[in-house]
Design a protein that fits this description.
By secondary structure, this protein is of the alpha/beta class. It contains 16 helices and eleven strands. It has three domains: 68 residues, Chorismate mutase (Chorismate Mutase Domain, subunit A, Up-down Bundle), CATH 1.20.59.10; 125 residues, Aspartate Aminotransferase, domain 1 (Alpha-Beta Complex); 225 residues, 3-Layer(aba) Sandwich (Aspartate Aminotransferase, domain 2). Helix 7 runs parallel beside helix 8.
Length: 460
């Protein structure tokens, strides 16, 4: 009897091996066909991505999955892995669009130049030059005296979670304290999405959303906005982009890099689209305090699959403290906390006490300073006749260059001691834009923009 069972087990294993080998051969054949299709598309000047064809294949796969009894989610995950690989194979046949560079890449280059003795005017990163509140520094010293430097609950010390919950009008169980807003974004995306599933991002956008999706093999689809439409998203197009593989929409308002704030009617429609399709809605509100017009947080819309992300980095100029937080349902917070427990255990306890102290401080002077600087930068850019939409908030202005691409200008400016961010770091379709950070005193900003103006004039 035992021998018969072993023979049966080996027979089944042999069949599994054979089927696996056949799957690999079929995948190889599919990639070869994709390569040929890519060559034809390249000759005809056709885009690699064809949403209509993908949609048709997706419907076919869903129909087949239902017919043979395979789970829809699993079938779509497999399909999206194949589609992503096909897209990569076809893209290899295209001439490269040019060097890819982000604001952080430019920041690192600028730091290297400074280390070699070159003076740099930093207008590439959102790091305020003003200091955190004095009480924050005192809190750090006090934490040492009180021996508040131990492991904490992964979700954060209770006092800080309670204070954040009161500020945001939620319960303490809906809060997780994270090492900066970036890790809140990371833990939300990595805990709620799987490989092959899709994330929709409204571009231009902070690149971290796509980077986090890429990290787990999820796919990112970009809803493009334009200067001509004042960076407003096309909501009909958003609805059309949603498909059975879509699991999350990422929003960032006030927007980095444009400073755009969406009106309440637009936000209500986006929430409605997410609710109708059961999508997670990730709302990065790190710049909420730097809003110069009416701004409503996502949790005010009462959607149970929303995740609010915020940070102490911008509000209180505490970038190096690395303290942020997320607000979501208890279920979502539990999933995010699991990622944090695996990755970092918890945020450093002294930094959490510093953040708790900061919550008692008034950041309004920082907001007034930033608004004044943004107005100054906007005025200087108008003198240069550059096109841009005046920011509703945040710390940046995102002008369009009269000609040429962003990387060429950014590299020339670095040589002259000025660091700005390339527009294409916020989306491949924005190579004629740059992002200017207003985190320096006006005299410094004026000097940097004057150098930028002379470089642009030389190249036109």
């Amino acid at each position: 009897m035992a021998m018969e069972k072993n023979d049966e087990l080996e027979s089944l294993r042999s069949q599994v091996r054979d089927i696996t080998a056949q799957i690999m051969r079929n995948v190889h054949q599919r990639m070869e066909l994709a390569k040929q299709i890519g060559e034809i598309k390249s000759r005809l000047g056709i885009d690699v991505k064809d949403e209509k064809v993908e949609h048709e294949i997706r419907l076919m796969v869903l129909s087949l999955a239902d017919e043979i009894g395979v789970g829809r989610d699993f079938a779509l995950q497999l399909l999206n892995v194949l589609l992503a690989e096909s897209e990569q194979v076809q893209a290899q046949k295209r001439p490269q669009k040019g060097q890819k560079q982000t604001h952080l890449g430019i920041f690192m280059k600028a730091k290297q130049l400074e280390a070699s003795g070159k003076k740099i005017i930093h207008m590439e990163v959102g790091e305020p030059d003003y200091s955190p509140p004095a009480a924050v520094g005192e809190s750090l010293a006090e934490s040492f005296k009180l021996k508040q430097y131990h492991y904490t609950d992964t979700r954060g010390i209770p006092e800080l979670r309670d204070a954040i919950a009161r500020k945001e009008g939620v319960s303490e169980g809906q809060v997780v304290v994270t090492p900066g807003g970036r890790f809140a974004v990371f833990s939300a995306i990595t805990s709620l999405l799987k490989a092959g599933q899709e994330l929709i991002v409204v571009e231009p956008a902070w690149p971290a959303y796509k980077e986090c999706a890429d990290f787990i093999g999820a796919m990112t689809k970009a809803l493009l906005t334009t200067l001509e439409n004042k960076w407003a998203p096309d909501l009909k197009q958003l609805e059309e982009m949603v498909n059975p593989s879509t699991k999350m929409i990422a929003l960032n308002y006030p927007n980095n890099p444009t400073g755009k704030i969406l009106d309440n009617k637009t936000m209500e429609k986006i929430v409605s689209i997410a609710r109708d399709n059961g999508l997670y809605l990730l709302s990065d509100e790190v710049y909420a305090d730097y809003a110069f017009k009416k701004f409503a947080s996502i949790h005010e819309h009462g959607y149970d699959k929303s995740i609010l992300v915020s940070s102490f980095s911008k509000r209180y100029a505490m970038t190096g403290f690395r303290v942020g937080y997320a607000i979501a349902s208890r279920d979502i917070i539990a999933k995010m906390a699991k990622v944090q427990a695996v990755g970092i255990t918890s945020v450093a306890e002294p930094m959490q006490h510093a953040a708790l102290t900061a919550l008692g401080e008034d950041p309004s002077e920082n907001v007034r300073t930033m608004k004044k600087r943004l107005d100054f930068v906007s005025g200087k850019l108008k003198e240069m006749s550059l096109r841009f939409v005046e920011p509703d908030g945040a710390m940046y202005v995102y002008p369009k260059l009269p000609r040429g691409d962003d990387i060429a200008l950014v590299e020339k400016l670095l040589e002259k001691g000025v660091a700005i961010a390339p527009g294409s770091g916020f989306g491949d379709n924005y190579r004629q834009f740059v992002r200017i950070s207003a985190c320096q005193p006006e005299k410094t900003l004026e000097k940097g923009i004057d150098i930028m103006a002379s470089v642009i004039k030389e190249s036109t």
